[in-house]
Write a structure and sequence with these properties.
Blueprint (H helix, E strand, L loop, with lengths): L2 E2 L7 E4 L2 E9 L6 E7 L5 E6 L8 H14 L6 E5 L5 E7 L2 H12 L5
Parallel strand pairs: 3-5
Antiparallel strand pairs: 1-4, 2-3, 3-7, 4-5, 6-7
Length: 114
């Protein structure tokens, strides 16, 4: 079961070469969109996203990367899936300076909070 994440929780964390972001992906959805921030049953916070592509042959993952690259105005090559390629729960790496990326993406994410 998932629920809305507390307003102070963030799916972003600093990694060795940039930023990490936890994502909960819904493939095969009726629309491609960012659906907000959620807390999973284990308490982990994740960005909730849906894509119309099905989870076959990496198509849903590619659609997710394309969506996030467009939303965050980053090249697709700057975003990689480092865990969960075949799972709905994923950990993505965003290459770049985490000190610059994190405030920018936290500001972007604020529009999904109540």
């Amino acid at each position: 079961m998932t629920q809305a994440a507390p307003s102070s929780a963030s799916p972003f964390s600093i990694g060795p070469d940039g930023l990490r972001v936890a994502v909960r992906l819904a493939p095969g959805a009726s629309r491609t969109a960012i659906d907000g921030v959620i807390a999973d049953s284990d308490g982990a916070t994740a960005l909730k996203a849906s894509v119309t592509e099905i989870a076959e042959g990496g198509r849903a993952n590619a659609a997710l990367v394309k969506l996030l690259a467009k939303e965050w105005r980053l090249p697709r090559t700057a975003i990689g899936i480092i865990r969960g390629a075949t799972d709905r729960r994923k950990l993505l790496a965003i290459d770049g300076d985490a000190r610059q990326l994190q405030p920018r993406l936290e500001e972007w994410m604020a529009r999904f909070r109540p």
